[in-house]
Write a structure and sequence with these properties.
Helices cover 96% and strands 0% of the residues. With 80 residues, it is mainly alpha-helical.
């Protein structure tokens, strides 16, 4: 290898190593942001699920009460 070829190989090697370090730094930075954002999103979704469960309980209670009242109405009509 002559000095020109060696210089080209060194430049390519330096650029590759620099791009690898740059990518590693980006991924480390992104993972920190994602963790914080993920926690916030997870908490929001947990709150929403809790709220929906509470609403479902109310709907189930209303439905059961209506079924019982409907059954009573049917029985009262049969007795007539």
């Amino acid at each position: 290898m002559n000095s020109g070829e060696l210089m080209v190989v060194l430049i390519v090697a330096v650029v590759m190593v620099a791009s690898i370090f740059k990518q590693m730094a980006r991924s480390r930075f992104r993972s920190n942001d994602v963790d914080g954002e993920s926690r916030v999103e997870n908490q929001r979704l947990r709150d929403e699920v809790h709220e929906l469960k509470e609403r479902l309980k109310v709907i189930e209670r209303i439905t059961v009460e209506k079924e019982n009242s409907l059954a009573k109405e049917i029985e009262s009509l049969r007795d007539r």
